[in-house]
User: Fold these one by one.
Assistant:
Number 1:
Amino acid sequence: MKSVEEIYNEMMAAYAQATGTEAAASGDLAVRMYAMAAQVFALYVQCEWVERQCFPQTAEGTCLDRHAQLRGLERREATAAEGVLRFTVDTAADQDREIPSGTVCMTAGLVRFETVEDGVLQAGITQADVRARALEPGSAGNVAAGTILTMAVAPVGVSRCTNPEAFSGGTDQEDDETLRARVLETYRRMPNGANAAFYQQGALSFDEVVAATVIPRPRGVGTVDVVVATVSGAPGAELLEELTAYFEARREIAVEVQVRAPTMKEVAVSVQVAAAANKDAEQVRTAVESALRTWFDGHRLGENVLRAKLGDLIYAVEGVENYQLISPETDVVVAADELPQLSGLTVEAMA
């Protein structure tokens, strides 16, 4: 694309050729010419932007969303992490204590969570578990167990709070590159009402579904299995029923379609981490645990668990100076209808 100076020089040369005289560089005409050159440059910039937005390979933002809509796709919105908060008292009371819905608890990093149901700390009991979700959607809500320790306003009589298990399921809004890859995939694998692309793209049109694989002829000719996963892993019964009804209305004649949850492939991960000298070792280990837990979600359907990938995740955590991956000892091979799931996670200080 031409610069403002190039456009200005061309305009001045054209003026000199047409009139036989050259405009003074400091004159009023030169100033007007430069202002016009700047406007022409702005038109060049606008034209280049329009050209980029015309094609899904280069479109951005809202324009990419419109390309996606033409292919029956939509950008995935951010989702909030969910889990359980545990409220504790030092001494059991002789009457029930209410924990109202909307009670807010926080991590040291001020990531906030609120209860989504009314809870009751029953008389004679020192703790109660209440379902909760992150106030802000996004992956920041995926926190490790034992990291939520502060209450914004403590319910009457409640002394402490924590999360006995990690919060999970939080995802950020789909970025342009991820959406672009999905849009371009619909061009590379055109659904025809009978092939695997038809079933896979149909399943992925549901917001809750983040990954889907198609198993042809699992029970003989004329049978198809559609295996789907959500961010949290296995889909619920309601989602499976919706997908089954969707494909029943669109399947080929004499084809039996079964929509099912993936088989869980348990993977135990153990890692030792050395923190950089200027970093808090405990916080670094917590961040490593959070990164690994977040990675093991529904997107991993049918993907092998590679030691190299786990190492990349660990080393990418800010503050990690060195690490040693103890387990798995080898890459974990995963079948197309299997979903890797953490069966255990240990993050320790490196000796």
Note: The mean pLDDT is 91.
Number 2:
Amino acid sequence: MVCLDCSIVPLSLITLVILGYLWVKKQFRFFEDKGIPFVKPTFPFGNLSGVGKDRHMGVFINEAYKELKGKDVVGGIFFFTSPSVMPLDLDFLKHVFVKDFQYFHDRGMYVNEKDDPLSAHLFSIAGQKWKHLRNKLSPTFTSGKMKMMHSTLIAVAHEFQKYLGECADNEEEVELKDVLARFTTDVIGSCAFGIECNSLKDPNTQFREMGKKTFELKGFDFIRILFITMFPNIGRALRMKMNKDDVTDFFMNVLRETIEYREKNDVKRNDFLSLLIQLKNTGKIEGEDTDFGKITFEELAAQTFLFFAAGFETSSSTMTFALYELAKEQEIQDRVREEINRVLGEHNGEYSYDACMEMKYLDQVIKETLRIHPIVPNLVRTLNKDYKIPNRDYVFKEGTFFTVPVIGIHNDPDIYPDPAKFDPDRFTEENIKNRHPFAWIPFGEGPRNCIGMRFGMMQTRVGLATLLSKYRIKLTSRTPIPMDYLPSSAGVLSPRDGMWLKIEKA
């Protein structure tokens, strides 16, 4: 006698497997059905096989761009079973970033305000909430506010210069990626929290450790983050988090204690936190007429965390790659060192805001570094309503992901001849004018570009000027040539085995 229950169970499983197979097959036909070129996917990772383990996301994005470029204005890739449209044409990018921004204003990042309050920051939030918060925070990143924070930055830069002197005296090769991250941790800790982190003196301070943990991906962390980004509703239902609990607890507690102390003792500082406290208490920023409305403590905490995490990692990596390229090209290093010292001589040796802004060739060096090594190698946008590609019959539904291949565009030989060559003269005013305005996009473009771009560039200028004014950087036997990116570095470019270089007194 056949057990009816026993026969139903395997039949149900077989049915589910067949339905799942058909659904995946349908997903993987997404671009083929529309007649759009795409990179062939495989189950279950789509095109992400090995990403995060054997190769960096940026390497994959660059390879996909090379494979698809020239075939149409857009191409297709797959994150797991989710299709993502890859813009391949710079004129179309203008639609994504500016002309049709009303369709593309969301990044599609994972936000879980209830279980993971630090995830609800300006980089991730969507819709009207993003628009209102961006309006509130924009006055904190004006050139005037940058000048206000500059003196705080310089105080840390002097300690940085002293530390470099010790490195030069020892005449040993130095892992500069870590040194530069400690410098930017101290800068951001001071400018964002008003706290002396002292990471340069003690590399094991809590701020430095928590900064590392923020970008440290272990085990299945990379897959987990990609999963909740692709399937946010499931992630929120399962109470999944973008940030680690100890990182969240540390930053929330530090902020509560710092704000309580400042408010109780009427402490005022020229830093980012002071501006956010003003918004929290009054909805206004001193010197600004607009009443933006108050922000909550949780909103303040999320923005301060973003300022810290994005500020220390992106700037330290930019400086790392710049010094790497300058160590390989000593003539270019000589030229930028000559400019730095000439400008400093005209400003009584002071690394003032105006002096740093006058270092034009240094600015070109930074821009060329970000061309070859864009710290964020791809930008993501998500459609918030159905959209038709201009001059094409391609229509995409609300919720479709668009992945902008920054690293591919920046290393396109048709845009930048001999793209592997480090040549800061690509960024003279004349050469910039002769290129497509969307050919260099390390900070994004349009209304949702990086709000902290001014601060990041200022911090990078000061750090490089402080170092190069007194020291020369040289290659060692441990310098990674060619460059190899760390696969698990949370979507930002970072050298796989650190950056070993030698510091010498000039």
Note: The CA atoms of residues 344 and 351 lie 7 Å apart.
